[in-house]
Write a structure and sequence with these properties.
Blueprint lengths: L9 H23 L4 H19 L16 H8 L1 H18 L8 H23 L4 H27 L4 H33 L10
Amino acid sequence: MHLPDGIIPLNQAIIYWIITLIIMAIFLYKFSNDENKEERIISIAIFSVFTITVTSLSIPSPLGVPIHFFLIPLIAILLGPLTSNIVSFISLLVQAIALNMGGITILGANFIVMGLILSFVTFGFYKLFEDINKKVAIFTSTIIGIMAATFGQVAILLLSGAMNFDSLLATLVPFYLFISIIEGFANTVIIAAIERIKPEIMEINKI
């Protein structure tokens, strides 16, 4: 889902960067007031390394296009949307600088899609369905979060004039729906394992 540098006009990329910097400033301020921020810093460091590593892997798929998993929905469910946004920003920055994934000018747009939208939509729907059935909540919220991010990316590309709506729907939507279903199942299994092995993680205050 990483958009490359140059795919949208520079003036639009700057606007996304400004929005991103404002959002990150608010998040870091809230984070600085967290009473468990020392423990959370460790979690952010661990999950950032994990996210950078896993999302950089290309996994073959029957659709003929390599799959890159997100992991941000998992972090949003475990630690909350503010923490997952910080992890997303760090991961995108390292990937852009060191791994040639995405880019610097486009980083703001990528963060809005893979950080802001993905984190808050996933977490919001998880909390909405959590009391009904936790496994259903994890699976459903992961799918909805990834699809919301997909349509966020579609909106950015349409505003840039890079692609037309029909092409985007025909290519991005089926592909990321496929990924979201796989990641939804994976998150359900992972969180079930965490609840058995290290249940205290699920009790961490989610911010």
